[in-house]
């Protein structure tokens, strides 16, 4: 309906909000969401925010939840008649969420997330206080586009005032389209948290905090460990640019110059070429968990803004990367300038010798 805001629903978890959240929700709108969990499980709903203008019996704006299997309803809820607890445990695998608004003056609207009974240790928006040194938290799908800031990056860790599950997406330990379980620790804070662009999210540059959040990746592979840089045996490309300078000298922006640490100019496809590609031969089959890209800031402001990935075990048969959703070829967000590094995680990881 016309009152629906950010929505991402999966069988295991999801996040939903009213239109314009956390800005004032619009007048005379309605939205209906139907949540479905796998058979044999039940839904757990977390009320991140219910800020609907108060009125008698929530007549001006309301949130109502219906459990058709049990014939039970919860609500209506609004600001003066909110949920009794931030977490609602149902006995049903199907719940209908109804939101309606009439004329009103104020209110942020609503933010809800849910998980199934398979994930009871789930996290709410925003994160609560961490009471254990190394807690395990379940983050619902859809955290990436929730309002709230994160400070830091995957290598440093994150300022402890960051939105926890959003930081987990930025760090590449979960995919936003699926959510999942994360393990983290609170460690001593640092003086400065550097910003980074990773997995479609910008973090901020932040100052000193007493504690920082450090995410721990679960490595299910033998070697190399998560985060180790893979050696590239050879580079190949669809084409490369042969630059001729003012003195008539030729300079090749060849595929071999594509390694991240290469000094000077990088690889660049021939100008005007369509469907350009760069290919990496890893020498043998490897577990590839992510990719870092950077442009060429020497003399020219060149960089790639988006890209797709394919992989092959034999260099002949190629498989496009589709990520956790598996329906369409995934488009990764690349760089916004020629000097910054951008990280994108592969969740699930790629097992291949060749990556294109």
Automatic annotation (TrEMBL):
Keywords: Disulfide bond, Membrane, Phosphoprotein, Transmembrane, Transmembrane helix. InterPro entries: CUB_dom, FA58C, Galactose-bd-like_sf, LCCL, LCCL_sf, Neuropilin_MCO_CoagFactor, Sperma_CUB_dom_sf. Residues 137-213 form the LCCL domain. PROSITE patterns: CUB, FA58C_3, LCCL. It is found in: Membrane. Residues 4-117 form the CUB domain. Residues 219-356 form the F5/8 type C domain. CDD domains: CUB, FA58C. It is a single-pass type I membrane protein. Pfam families: CUB (PF00431), F5_F8_type_C (PF00754), LCCL (PF03815). The keyword Disulfide bond applies. Disulfide bonds join 4-31. GO terms for cellular component: plasma membrane. GO terms for molecular function: signaling receptor activity. This is DCBD1 protein. The gene is Dcbld1_0.
């Amino acid at each position: 309906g016309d009152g629906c805001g950010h929505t991402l629903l999966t069988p295991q978890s999801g996040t939903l909000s009213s239109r314009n959240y956390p800005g004032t929700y619009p007048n005379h709108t309605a939205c209906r969401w139907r949540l479905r969990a796998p058979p044999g499980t039940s839904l757990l709903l977390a009320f991140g925010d219910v800020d609907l203008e108060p009125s008698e019996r929530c007549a001006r704006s309301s949130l109502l939840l219906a459990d058709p299997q049990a014939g039970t309803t919860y609500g209506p809820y609004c600001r003066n008649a909110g949920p009794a607890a931030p977490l609602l445990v149902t006995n049903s695998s199907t719940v209908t969420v109804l939101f309606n608004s009439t004329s009103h003056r104020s209110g942020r609207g609503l933010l809800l997330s849910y998980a199934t009974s398979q994930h009871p240790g789930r996290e709410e928006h925003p994160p609560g206080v961490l009471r254990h040194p190394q807690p395990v938290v379940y983050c619902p799908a859809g955290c990436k586009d929730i309002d709230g800031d994160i400070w830091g990056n995957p290598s440093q860790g994150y300022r402890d005032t960051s939105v926890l599950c959003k930081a987990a997406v930025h760090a590449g330990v979960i995919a936003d389209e699926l959510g999942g379980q994360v393990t983290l620790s609170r460690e001593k804070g640092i003086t400065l948290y550097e910003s980074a662009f990773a997995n479609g999210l910008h973090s901020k540059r932040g100052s000193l905090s007493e504690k920082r959040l450090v995410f721990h990746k679960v490595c299910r592979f033998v070697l190399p460990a998560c985060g180790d840089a893979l050696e590239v045996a050879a580079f190949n490309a669809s084409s490369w640019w042969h630059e001729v300078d003012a003195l008539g000298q030729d300079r090749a922006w060849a595929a071999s110059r594509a390694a991240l640490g290469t000094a000077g100019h990088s690889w660049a496809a021939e100008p005007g070429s369509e469907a350009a590609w760069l290919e990496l031969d890893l020498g043998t089959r490897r577990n590839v968990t992510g990719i870092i890209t950077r442009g060429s800031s020497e003399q020219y402001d060149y960089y790639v803004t988006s890209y797709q990935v394919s992989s092959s075990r034999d260099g002949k048969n190629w498989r496009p990367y589709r990520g956790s959703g598996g329906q369409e070829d995934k488009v990764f967000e690349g760089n916004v300038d020629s000097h910054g590094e951008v990280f994108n995680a592969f969740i699930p990881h790629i097992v291949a010798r060749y990556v294109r």
